[in-house]
Queue: 2 jobs
Job 1
Amino acid sequence: MQKIKTVKYNLPVEGMTCASCVTRVEKALSKVEGIENVSVNLANEKVTFDMNEGLSPDLAAKAIDKFGYKLHTESLKDNETENKSDNLIDEYYTNLKKDFIFSALLTLPIFLISMLREFIWFSSIFPFGDDYTNKILLILVTPIIFVSGKRFYKIFWTNLKHFSFEMNSLVAIGTGAAYGYSVFATLFPKFLMIDDKLPHVYFETAAVIIVLITMGKLLETRAKRKTGGAIKNLLELKPKEATIIQDDKELVVKLSELKISDMVIIKPGEKIPADGIIVSGSSFVDETMITGESVPIEKIVGSKVIGGTINTNGSFNFEISALGDNSILGQIIKLVETAQGSKAPIQQLADKVSSIFVPTVILIATATFIAWMIFAETNNFSIALINFVAVLIIACPCALGLATPTAIMVGTGLGAQHGILIKNGESLEIAHKINTIVLDKTGTITEGKPTVTDIITNGLDNSELLSFAASIEKKSQHPIATSIVEYANGLNTNYFEPESFENLSGYGVTAIVNDKSVALGNEKLMNKFSINIDDFSESFEKLSTKGKTIIFCAIDNKLNGIIAVEDPIKDTSKEAIERMQKSGLEVFMLTGDNNITAEAIANRVGIKNYFAEVLPNQKAEKIKELQKQGKIVAMVGDGINDSPALVTANLGIAIGTGTDIAIESSDITLIKGNLNGVVEAIALSKKTIRIIKQNLFWAFVYNTIGIPFAALGFLNPMIGALAMSLSSVSVISNSLRLKRVKL
Ligand code: ADP
Ligand code: MG
């Protein structure tokens, strides 16, 4: 069967207010044929999904339109999804603010009159009788209900048609009941009179609830805008324009007009507009914003520069190699965006609970009403009603829906600012459970850039041996191969064209050079061809103990010499490994290199457990072995022959400007090439999960404690409205605390 190609969409949705909306939108979209992997993020009010190529996203818009949600597909055409959803949120915020001010101004007199009328002296300064006062209140409160309250009733109504309920339903039923009853009591008091006393009215309750909930939404929207700040910061890294050379003239152009291969001029202090390679000049470039590396990096002719970084004092010209979505910054933005829109498994519980929460609350509220009707001694209708309203209002589950996504947004955003790219909420969650770290040796603990240090020969010249070795290694991509070729280039070595070249992954290389069969590689390779290494065993041991890697060079099945290469350990490795061990993590090293070299390197960085002489295809097996012992394993590698291990591990961390494959197969990518990033990523995960747990705890506790109080008549619905608004705001503020975390 042919696999259908899909397109990933990430679009703003208008009208989602709480956790139950999330479930509803997800369900409605998942039902559409050709749409998969739907995930709604309430924090940035966006939905991501995969859609079969050729289908129109309008199909998706239609599916949720009947539930009262609007999918903004037009932003696709603008190619400015980010700005679009920002504008939407801004517009929403302005409207909310207007509604809030309007309803607050009207509520003030309503509230004062309703409270003060309870005092006898009030009648001496307020000349209207109870009957008239009620009518004045009715006139004041009606615009609040129909103007500011409209947003709740509209959504309630759309949902009611599908017999579904969510947060707006609770507010709408609650305030609607209080208002409706009071209108009736004002216009037809006779029906409700007990002992000739006018019935009590609850206009202020309806008004205050609407004001407070609108205020809560207002504060919530303001705080939410802050959680998405990371992407905005990233987008602002690039300059608006750039100076390029065209027909020998300098020309200032807009960023959107840049093309691959354009020659860009960078002056001191300028922002670099795109990725590229320096052709002339030199400078130091501040790459903090991309890699988290705080020291400016030296750039000379041939160095890569990254769009979005800032030049210091020098100046240079560079040729553009990548732009837009293909640039490093573009890829980072995409990654962060997807991560921020993704869900952590911990959220599933909250989603499940809130989808059955609202109907349950309506049942509890109804039961409360009935119980008070039966058991209250006087005024039972009025008391039953107010407690019914109190239960509805206190139980609104909006804090629940915000607990996880806001923390994920802030957490992944903060990571990106430190050069830690987290693939999704799931990766972020797993990271905090890790208790074992496996580090690849080459390129992870070490620089991955070995240099030749010694050549020892027997029966032929060093230069002769080198010319055989380098001729073959020219064909290999291995870092060891590169080092040998570089060394040979510096010595004007003769090259031959090798025949029948073969790369034996984890062993070395073989080929026919100048009619001689040459084998170049480790001890295992020599064993494979039954080549005796006794003549060199002494030097082999001596050099290996120093942490060098020994390459045996056999010509026509006779060992003619060895080449030692040394791959320097990164300055930061030892300290970072110590930090891991101090925080209780068990650290292992994994390498294809020989036992003696492995031991030497492990000793130097303070690692006790290591696996040496592991073939590339066995690396994943080693991870599985550790997992079988019950360990939760993070594998850190550069992606050169360790991708399977990265995938097998519970958490795959790709380090350095790793290869593209590694980024694909990893859960976390560290742009900055040092191991401190591993410690920081785990710390970030722990802090984020702690915040999520706090958020969920408070959101749950507050609802569960509130409901019985309200049902028993101990909670004024106005206080309930205040508590509910504040709880959403406090959940978001708690998530925003993450922004200030030091990594
Ligand atoms: P690592 O785990 O250090 O990345 P590899 O699995 O890539 O190691 O390689 C293991 C060993 O195989 C190297 O230490 C080296 O001895 C040998 N080897 C691999 N490729 C080559 C090559 N192109 N030339 C010489 N030796 C090689
Ligand atoms: Mg490797």
Job 2
Amino acid sequence: MSVNIKTAEEIEKMRVAGHLAGEVLQMIRPYVEAGMTTGELDRICHEYIVNTQKAIPAPLNYHGFPKSICTSVNHQVCHGIPGDRVLKNGDILNIDITVIKDAYHGDTSKMFMIGKPSIKAARVARIARECMVLGIEQVKPGTHLGDIGYAIQQHAESQHCSVVRDYCGHGIGRGFHEEPKVLHYGKRGDGLQLEAGMTFTIEPMINTGRHHVKTLPDNWTVVTKDRSLSAQWEHTILVTEDGYEVLTQCPGDEI
Ligand code: MF3
Ligand code: CO
Ligand code: CO
């Protein structure tokens, strides 16, 4: 396993790409409402990334993925394909944005509530975000990847939720998915030790039911096997000399 350490020039490009990805999530916010289709959200993001940001939507044609963003609703865990599905009151939706700018990737996702979600739905979205933040807060040189996974798993399970095992965070840079794998479960002190200049995502998928997932016949959409609700948040993180920098955080946004 080879984890590359980014140079100062590369880090600057990662900041730009990360910022653009975060901006897409800010831009799309007002459009995310009941009556909208996920396909329309994809179209708006695509136009914005290509025409306004002069960037590339990384998912489009990535291993054959047919759209520019991922939209995962309710019991969909990740990699939902935008299409004719109409968003309705009470839905929870993850929008996952990855852009390429100047050859570098920025990858971020967050949950959106359509109208008034159930208490359960709002709760899993909140817990998934807390898991991501707790994971991010572990990041500094010397921390082991297992410390990140442990913090996330500990919080999710203390809240009677489960952590999806089959998908994980990842190194990111010129590549969309680089080494290392960033598991969202684990043991303290296990795995690789972080070094300044590493860039990777933390993107826990948290279920209200069991952790098992399956892929739908469209070959992309991942859903919970027990049809329980699932939520995910994601940021691209840089390991700094004394901690972390969230590369996909935009001014005025909480992490
Ligand atoms: N953005 C996703 C991630 O966080 C990957 C999407 S791959 C796609 O790693 F092909 F489904 F777009
Ligand atoms: Co990612
Ligand atoms: Co992503």
